[in-house]
Amino acid sequence: ILNVEQSPQSLHVQEGDSTNFTCSFPSSNFYALHWYRWETAKSPEALFVMTLNGDEKKKGRISATLNTKEGYSYLYIKGSQPEDSATYLCAFMGNNAGNMLTFGGGTRLMVKP
Amino acid sequence: GAGVSQTPSNKVTEKGKYVELRCDPISGHTALYWYRQSLGQGPEFLIYFQGTGAADDSGLPNDRFFAVRPEGSVSTLKIQRTERGDSAVYLCASSLTPASNYGYTFGSGTRLTVV
Q1: Residues of A within an 8 Å Cβ radius of B
Q2: Are the CB atoms for A4 and A104 separated by under 8 Å?
């Protein structure tokens, strides 16, 4: 069983605060690390697919970094807005995982106006 | 279609009944996945189809669960003799290729409640 952990489980911040959360995953047999945003009553939406150690990806105010040697990824949100409120999921794909993703438990972010 | 469509969006059923959940993936996406999300947890893998065949069904919890994709597009997840523990959000996702650099496209899920 693959262990993909996310912390914190939930986070309350004020509008304008910057925040970050962590995803840890197995450091062996790495193929890819995905980040998704899941807003209530909507579909999970892909944010990033990261494959290379040291990768850093950015989409607007959201960015992510990847360390495959030590098995962690950080997701950063700069200047949080109420519309950023969602559950952020990371998911690990291994070389021998049969092309399926193993998800962490998610970080639930709530941004207060 | 424009996105992944799942029907019904909500299903309430009595313990012991049979249910079918439908997933209509993006046209042309060869890979299709079913996941289940229970309260407070991340999505848990159930089964993966590559075309018409189940490439990996190791996540199906027991033989009450079965899924098909007969023509390589629409998939149906079937649950026999439902139990209260089957209550969850069932998510379907598709991707152009199994290890797509664009990630999976998810449907909005079917919320199954077994009473």
Answers
A1: 4, 6, 31-32, 34, 36, 41-46, 48-49, 51, 89, 91, 93, 98-106
A2: yes
